[in-house]
Amino acid sequence: MIRPPTARSVIPGPGRLGLVEPSAAADLADLGWTTEAHIDLLWALSRAPDADLSLRTLTQLKEALGDGWPELAEALHADRTLRGRLFAVIGASTALGEHLVTDPQGWRRLTTGNDLPTADRMTARFLEVVRATADEGCPGGPVLRAAVTGPEAVALLRKEYRDQLLILAAADLAAVVENEPVLAFPAVGRHLSDLADAALTAALAVAVATVYPDEACPVRLAVIAMGKCGARELNYVSDVDVVFVAEPADAKASRIAAEMMQIGTAAFFEVDAALRPEGKRGELVRTLDSHIAYYQRWAKTWEFQALLKARPMAGDMGLGRKYVEALGPMVWTASQREDFVPEVQAMRRRVENMVPAAMRERELKLGRGSLRDVEFAVQLLQLVHGRADESLHVQSTVEALTALAAGGYVGRDDAANLTASYEFLRLLEHRLQLQRLQRTHTLPAPDDEESLRWLARASHMRPDGRTDSLGVLRAEIKRNSLRVRRLHAKLFYRPLLESVTRIDSAALRLSPEAAIRQLSALGYLAPENALGHLRALTGGASRKGRIQALLLPTLLEWLGETPDPDAGLLAYRRVSEALIDQTWYLRTLRDEGAVAQRLMTVLGSSAYVPDLLMRAPEVLRLYADGANGPKLLEAEPEDVARGLLSSSMRYRDPDRAVAAARSLRRHELARVASADLLGMLTVPQVCTALSSVWVAVLEAALRSVADASLRGRGRPAPARLSVIGMGRLGGGELGYGSDADVLFVCEPVEGADETEAVRWATEIAERVRALLGAASVDPPLEVDTGLRPEGRSGPMVRTLGSYRAYYEQWAQSWEIQALLRAHAVAGDPDLGLRFLHMIDEFRYPAGGVSQTAVQEIRRIKARVDSERLPRGADPATHTKLGRGGLADIEWTVQLLQLRHAHEVPDLRGTSTLQTLDAIAEADLLSREDAELLRESWLTATHARNALVLARGKPGDQLPGPGRQLAAVANAAGWPGGDANEFLDHYLRVTRRAKAVVERTFGE
Question: What is the pTM assigned to this prediction?
Fold first, then answer.
């Protein structure tokens, strides 16, 4: 019976009801909802997520019902529950609205009293649809067999599944329109999982009847739910991950499984068996023993993580329970595996990298602060502590958070907040999927206000008095995403800190044993030591200790992502203790997030930089961002060199002058190495900066020693002295572990005795070498004069004329080749320039070098290849002397210089890379070949520098696969620090370059 008019006597127009479509007034008239008797219906309609969609679907439903419409109209007046469920579901889901229109009598399922069916009732209903009964004559026990198969069965099952989704969605959404009870998220996930179980039970019955239409089924087949379905937290639209176990696992068993998957995918949802052993390449069906053998011998860490969610869902439930009982215990030993941490970290990186940067703020499942952040963190904590605590052996994310909080592994407030954020994000995901019953996890674009406003209304968000529902939604998305990212770090590290500090917290009671387990699973090889560092950093009641306790959760997370978190944490402790009196230090880490993150990246990646930072702590301030980018990049090599010279020349005493130069060099090394590790500098930029600071130190030492000598003599210098850079110093291509190869050349001043001049210059040179080579905690400053005429048995210093005479009469081919990289770097610039002009006639001889000299160079190169490689070194991965390494590239470039520089002036350079460009420009090599040589030189140089950065000492040999190679790959800036990919790339690049070298030397 139609109710009398309410107190609200004014009939609201379409605009007040939120209706914007032009046809709204006509549609309301068509429904007959134009009088005061319909005011309650109109206001309820206005609360639908999309009032226009709800109205449009109602008009279609009226047409489909025909004479049955008055009964529904009367029921809508009388049944508030029906009104809330119907208006909400057809205003939120186009797909379910269309389903209701095709079966208009389906509205009766939404009336008061029609509660959600139980799991048993849904299963019975699906089996009834396909007329399935138990075949008692099967050898393995009763097996369900359907009487309806083929397309007819698929159509019937699809309709029943949509009917059940309609019932659930209507109950889930009803509170949006009317004051109905809110259906809790866990209840929705459980019901959807039960619905999937029921649906696949029926699909399996159809599959059995398809494969065995006229005979008893001899196969015992169990379907194991995995993923969200296994955890009973399924989405409205989601793949259902399954694994099959059968006795026997023969071709017929595989066919039954395949048929079930095909039926389920056609009728309900995508049925995915990719989580089975060996993935999509593996057998679809295995016996229980085969499953056990695979997980005992071959399974990777992520596969054990997937088993966390495994549960029997359909088929032979007894066999399914045996599967879970046999494999379940293996899950709880996964965190003890040697590859546990790298595999988990690699998986996490892959997940984050799957999402394009532009989409990460909109991605609910995989972006930052997303559902996967919560699930990943919770599962990792379960794996870590579940071995010793059976209360964590639960499957759903929400239940696991509750258990983690109860066990003291996570703070209760944090667990509650993370649960709330998780359920909020899942709610948004559900609403987006319901709209068209399509699998999606992506929020509407920020400028799509209409779609966002619909989402806000469908998610039961109302204006809060200050902002509309759209503003509330945006604020909630931002708040929950940030909270997930913050708590993601606290989940792991806050309990650790509570266990080692004096903070009184009844909610957290992580034992030392549990803390050690957690640190071990986070990648610490010496967790007991790490725990000691945490105690030292946070000990006492000092303000510094409290600040450290606040900082460390996030710092430890960043350290955990580095190749060596143990060394990183120790280095952080040492740096913190060294700077304990510097008030700016902790304040900077607290207030400058970029500084803290960059510092952890550097400390956990390098054994080279921490010592430098402790002696040059002011470099830490450069980790911050300036107005134009990172402050680490603000210094230019020329400015650094001038500042170093200016600072050192303030001191009259050479020891103090060189100490000042060392100090500034230390600062520059820390700056360059930090920027290099953080991926801010290219290889040529690193080489230029290192060469420039080396030259400045050399110049500073030379000036201070010469000035002190002259003050002691009391008369002018008897000679001019110049330093000629050789090798990488001459080419401006020094690395972190390079020595400075030099020649000292002098020239007596007018009227001076040549013997005295040479003696004085030699004293200066020897004093410079001694000062720079003195023992120091800094990286060494070795001045190497081994390339001088007659080698180490020859005089340290020669006059210009003596050099000329030697090169004219005695120089061997390799000595002339070495002159190709000679460049004046310090001392008297005029003398240096004249030395270079003098040697030009030897290194760039008219007509090029003789064929005899070329043959000699080839002979020496062959001897270097066969004899110089250190014993036990791998020729494929030795960065200097190995295949396609630095020596190969540089000898190739130098041979082309010797042969052609007399006629191609652009080849007269000392830089390998610049000369390669000139070689390509002159068509002496194809551009493709020149590019191969360039790439190999850069790759080998980068790897060689990375060896020093990672290990803290010079080296040329790449380590074999393992943690050391991973550290080198990370220091070399290889994406994701994947050691195997880094090594494969190195081998591929150097192999191609070696082919070019062999062709060039063979011509």
Answer: 0.68
